[in-house]
Design goal:
This protein is an alpha/beta fold. It has one domain: HAD superfamily/HAD-like (Rossmann fold, 3-Layer(aba) Sandwich), CATH 3.40.50.1000. About 50% of the residues lie in helices and about 20% in strands. It has helices spanning about 20-50, 55-65, 70-85, 85-90, 90-100, 115-125, 155-160, 180-185, and strands at about 1-5, 105-115, 130, 135, 140-145, 170-175, 190. The strands form two sheets. Strands 3-2-1-6-7 form a five-stranded parallel beta sheet, sandwiched between helices. A two-stranded antiparallel ribbon has the order 4-5. Strand 4 and strand 5 (about 140-145) form a beta hairpin. The chain is globular. The protein starts with a strand and ends with a strand.
Length: about 200
């Protein structure tokens, strides 16, 4: 029976949140901080009052990405992958991923980050990806999710949608936040925050 390794991305493989780093890369520092300031009342409302962080994330995406052409976003995503992601990835995380690959394990990145830049990185490293997808209408970003935000129980739902977990033994899972715990709880070997 083949082993399976499930990895969160932001804060687990990276030292920083790749979504925020991407938005900063795209908008520039001043544009990023101005945009986040304008979005802050809604972010606070969603996270503190109605307890729906995904709605805050969607509002931020609408502010920064709505109306952007798909090909332009993918081009920026490629540049971001080349210029920024290598600098925020933890070398120890790559070593652990490589170890799993050398053992012949199936390795899947399960992330709330957006697929249009993360897919390029996972392809480069021979990894599979389950991630949040942004919706496009008439070739332009709507700023809304095409799939639910891949966090918490949604990680489990998406994993089970494409994988029959009964076919894998053992299962390893790596994460660093409360939103990773449902995925981590699927595993025989659970790694939370300290695992490298």
């Amino acid at each position: 029976m083949k082993a399976l390794a499930l990895f969160d991305f932001d804060g687990t493989i990276t030292r920083k949140d790749s979504l925020l780093e991407f938005l900063k890369y795209k908008a520039g520092s001043s544009g990023f901080y101005a945009g986040m300031f304008l979005c802050m009342p809604y972010i606070l409302y969603c996270t503190l009052i109605i307890k729906k962080g995904w709605k805050a994330k969607e509002r931020v995406l609408q502010y920064f990405l709505k109306g952007q052409k798909k090909e332009d976003l993918y081009e920026i995503g490629t540049k971001f992958r080349n210029e920024i992601i290598p600098g925020i990835v933890e070398p120890a995380a790559l070593e652990k991923i490589k170890w799993h690959q050398e053992q012949g394990h199936r390795v899947v990145i399960v992330s709330a980050s957006l697929d249009f830049w993360l897919k390029k990185w996972t392809d480069d490293h021979g990894l599979e990806l389950i991630a949040t997808e942004i919706a496009f209408e008439n070739g332009k970003a709507s700023g809304k999710f095409a799939t639910p935000n891949c966090n918490g129980m949604e990680k489990v739902r998406r994993i089970k949608e494409i994988l029959d977990l009964n076919e894998y033994k053992p299962i390893y899972a790596y994460g660093n936040s409360h939103g990773d715990m449902p995925m981590i709880n699927l595993a025989d070997y659970k790694f939370y925050k300290y695992f490298f």
